[in-house]
Predict the structure.
Amino acid sequence: MLAADSTGPSIGHACGVFGVYGPGQPVAHLTYLGLFALQHRGQESAGIAVSDGETITVMKDMGLVTKVFDERRLASLQGHLAIGHNRYSTTGSSSWQNAQPIYRSVGDAGFALGHNGNLTNTAELAAGLGMLPGLTADETEFDSTTDSALVAELIAREWPDEPRSDGRELELALAKVLPRLEGGFSFVLMDDSRLIGVRDPHGFWPLVLGRVEGGGWILASESAALDIVGAHYIRDVNPGEMVVIDATGLRCELQYAEPSPRLCLFEFVYFSRPDTRLYGQSVHAARQRMGEELAQQSPIDADMVMPVPESGIPAAQGFARAAGIPYGDGLVKNRYVGRTFIQPSQQQRGAGVRMKLNPLPENIQGKRLVVVDDSIVRGTTTRQVVAMLREAGAAEVHFRVSSPPYRYPCFYGMDTGRRGELLAADLSVGEIRDYLDVDSLAYLDLDRLIRATHASPTSFCTACLSADYPVPVDLQVADAKRVLEAPEVDLTARTP
Ligand code: SF4
């Protein structure tokens, strides 16, 4: 995707969550490695909560995992149980206060929570509690602007009054709260001696369960994080399921709601690591098949197929193979510049393109190029990339996108901004072609994209492409809210 991975403003990620139950294991170090493996899902803040059976210690800060934690800090996090979180803000501001895991004390007990996703009924839930998001700590205990803090508050209010001998307060409170939540959520939670994983009934965001060699359990947003910490995949946490892990192992597998799987299709297109598996399928192989489908759907006579690195690489490989056109590099990515969506503001993102990508004129000059990327969201970056290629001597630039036009905002945990910021919201493909100044433009059809995943066609959320929202949202109300929240963006410059 142009702006997120490689070149500029785009949709942001959801968050990354990780959890370990591992007596005798270095749980803080494992969580650090897991968060590092999931760094692409959120770069604004990172945090780890650890329990030694009596005390939960939380350490979190703004920035990348490697900035927040060092050997000394990890050594101070001793215990047998941990959760971790990488945050990309989708609700609430980007601030230390909103970093996760969130810790909440309830009487003598306490719990920590990490959340990937967005609730769609936050306002109703907050109103039901007699509070509104955004109140300060002085005004209410609800001291964060995120929906995750609201969930923590709901759990605290459902906490059993009397301590239980079996220590199951957290899961009992959750069993009451979860059916009231709407939207997208994959949670990792812990009290002093239990690790809990939860997925919303649609399973918008992935959450997998694994075993550690030598004993112990892992929860992670992506299967690749299991590989990296030396764990093996057991299964996905089911949509609508809560799993509880304690000293007896995987003790509870509660299907608290009827599952209706609608995994975010963009996990296949862009969000997940290529070495992750979704619905049992290799993400990398699926992305190559998307490129093959694109070549069959929208062929073009050209001299070279090139990706927008790195997001377009697998689809460009597939396109080149299927089209029988040589694959080559036309842009070099600076590996040492941070991903541009680390900074959420539009102004900060704008400078990122030239910092990150540089053309290879000797590979481009006089050539008819097929340039492949996985998506175009706001389009400003794509336009700059095309201009760079033309300046470097490209004879023709034919842009191919391995997903359909991104026309509608996401309300389940992906930061897309409001609808007016999406290039394809009101423009035809022809108008986008003119705006980007390309010789031809084609997007992969939705049915071909889904076919390339090799998963069931009915098992995806495609709302940002189709407006088919699995959890109903009032587009006008939601967009009006985003107008109030989002910085104003001048889109007049995009008019051809
Ligand atoms: S609306 Fe789009 S980004 Fe959001 S969950 Fe659905 S497919 Fe994913």
Summary: The chain has 19 helices and 23 strands. The first strand starts at residue 16 and ends at 21. The domain at 2-261 is CATH 3.60.20.10 (Glutamine Phosphoribosylpyrophosphate, subunit 1, domain 1).
